[in-house]
Amino acid sequence: MSGEARMTEIVPPPLCALSLSDLVRAIVERDQFACVLCGNYVAGGLKSMHHRVLGDRSVNEPWNLITLCGSGTTLCHGWTHGIAVASYPKPSRSEITDSGYIVSRHHKHPWLVPVWFNQPPTRDGYYLLGHDLTVTEYQPERNPSCN
Ligand SMILES: [Zn+2]
Ligand SMILES: [Zn+2]
Predict the structure, then answer these.
(1) How far is the CA of 142 from the centre of ligand 1 (A)?
(2) Model pTM?
């Protein structure tokens, strides 16, 4: 099997069956009607949908969308876009990439980048977003030669 064949196997299929508004509703429900970053209640709506891969808003797939309070310039959503907002000082690049909120356009497998959820007690830590709207606790692979 060639490396290329393996790559295509792990590319998640698009979720074509849902309209955009149904998808937005499904993502907010997946995220427990709460902002991923602060845990505050979010009713829904397009403004609360953050695209993790910046610069390409056309990828409306579950792994690319997370629920954040505010808009692209306010509250947690604004902060994720690199803006200082009332609740937090301007983020460093590593703060928004380490959390998985921003993923490089050049990343080969952006859907495998875990996202930090700050929604204790139900979700507190890193999670992987499945193309089927699942949220799975991230288990980093351990190097067997480490104790
Ligand atoms: Zn928030
Ligand atoms: Zn955004």
Answers:
(1) 32
(2) 0.84
pLDDT tens by residue, 98-133: 999 999 999 999 999 999 999 999 999 999 999 889
- 34 in a structural domain: yes
Residue 20 half-sphere exposure toward CB, CA atoms < 13 A: 8
Residues in the chain: 147
Main-chain dihedrals φ then ψ at residue 66, nearest 5 degrees? -135, 155
CB under 5 Å of ion ligand 2: residues: 50
Note down the domain range covering 24. Answer: 16-137
Cα–ligand 1 centroid distance for 48 (angstroms): 9
What is the number of the ligand closest to the CA of 88? Answer: 1
How many angstroms is it from 70 CA to the middle of ligand 2?
Answer: 10
